[in-house]
Structure formats: structure tokens, C-alpha cells
Design goal:
- The chain has three helices and five strands, in the order βααβαβββ.
- By secondary structure, it is α+β, with helices and mostly antiparallel strands.
- It has a three-stranded mixed sheet.
- The radius of gyration is 16 Å and the shape is globular.
- The model has no long low-confidence stretch (mean pLDDT about 85).
Length: about 110
């Protein structure tokens, strides 16, 4: 769980999964929103995991209620969705470590 670390998480969809999602009418933003809304865990389960004490929790997280559902990250914008790979229907989830995704243009020479 990355809420409180300010890092991002990456969902790498294989082309087959990405096609099924697109054909159902969902965008990358829809996927991010769905994951953010549904990938949650009660705070009492996190207290013994994931360096709980090292988190800077947002004010809206009620740490006094053990049943407070904590999202996997601070916002849907912290979920990066990419399509990569070949055939085989294998997608992956990659966890960040207090890092943010950066992109850089690659110029083709010649």
C-alpha cells in the first residue's frame, strides 16, 4: 500500500487485456478510477504491514477507526496504466518505492 508514501504504482496490461478493456468502452482513466475506488484495505490490516509507522497519512484517513478503508494510493493519478508485452495474456502490477514515473522523448537518429 502506497498511500502516505507519495509514490506511484504501475499496472502493465498485456495487449489482450488492454483490448478487452478498450472494447468494453473503458479508458485508462476509467481503469485508474476503478482500481482507486476498489483496491482498499481496512487500516487495522495495514498496521502490522507495509512500514505502517513510516506513512504520512492524509487527514481524511481516520486512524482511530480500525475499519477505515484505505485506498492503495493517494489518488487515481498515482496509478500509471501502460500496455506492454506480447501474446500470452500476462499482465503485471509493479510497486513503486517512494518514486514517481518520468518520461523522456527518445529521438531516432538516422
Amino acid at each position: 500500500y502506497h498511500l502516505g508514501t507519495r509514490s506511484q504504482i504501475v499496472l502493465v496490461l498485456c495487449p489482450e487485456h488492454a483490448t478487452e478493456i478498450a472494447n468494453s468502452g473503458l479508458s485508462k482513466a476509467d481503469v485508474r478510477e476503478y482500481i482507486y475506488a476498489n483496491a482498499r484495505m481496512p487500516i487495522h490490516q495495514l498496521k502490522d504491514l507495509a512500514h505502517y509507522g513510516n506513512r504520512v497519512w492524509p487527514n481524511w484517513i481516520d486512524q482511530t477507526n480500525p475499519d477505515t478503508l484505505v485506498p492503495i494510493c493517494a489518488s487515481p493519478d498515482d496509478i500509471v496504466v501502460i500496455v506492454a508485452g506480447g501474446g500470452g495474456r500476462h499482465s503485471a502490477w509493479m510497486s513503486g518505492w517512494v518514486t514517481r514515473v518520468c518520461t523522456e522523448e527518445i529521438l531516432r537518429v538516422g
